[in-house]
Amino acid sequence: MTNAIYTASLPVFKQMLGGLKTVLSKAEAHTVDKKIDPNALLQARLFPDMFPLLRQVQVASDFAKSVSARLAGVEVPKLADDEQSFADLQARLDTVLAFMDSLDMALFEDAATREIVTQAGTPKEKRFSGQSYVLNYGLPHFFFHTTTAYVILRHNGVEVGKKDYIGSY
């Protein structure tokens, strides 16, 4: 049995996080090969008012885990957001991927119609159906941050391409 919400979200998050892991591995190798301080890439940004690479990866992984958790009706895991290196970011992505692997498809049975409330009780509170949450909110934000992480690295000379970004499918 398949579940459209599960199929449209978890495999996509996993694929793209796998691509992000590849891109980060290539970035780390680039810093070694070119004798560049890793922080030059980890703190690189496209424009002064945008998040640096490190934060783009954190936010992308936050969307993957929080959207998955809310759709499954389970508590969103908390991460410390204290990563400082490529190894730390890889470990974070591994943690998020392991969490998503722990979610059984059966948890998503009513996900399309489940009410999702973000920032409950605040002036920024938003209410979604599960379907709207994943398709109109979760996936677009996730793709924005994974794409921005890729573009920061490509802009800074890391030899990555579309195949690296998309990952294995």
What does this structure look like?
The protein has 169 residues and is mainly alpha-helical. The chain has a single domain (4-166), classed as Four Helix Bundle (Hemerythrin (Met), subunit A) (Up-down Bundle). It is 60% helix and 5% strand. The protein is built from 6 helices and 2 strands. The chain has helices at 4-33, 38-42, 53-72, 86-101, 130-155, 162-166; strands at 115-118, 126-129. A two-stranded antiparallel ribbon has the order 1-2. Helix 1 runs antiparallel to helix 4. The chain is globular and about 50 Å long. The model has no long low-confidence stretch (mean pLDDT 96).
Outline of the structure:
The chain has helices at 4-33, 38-42, 53-72, 86-101, 130-155, 162-166; strands at 115-118, 126-129. By secondary structure, the chain is mainly alpha-helical. It has a two-stranded antiparallel sheet.
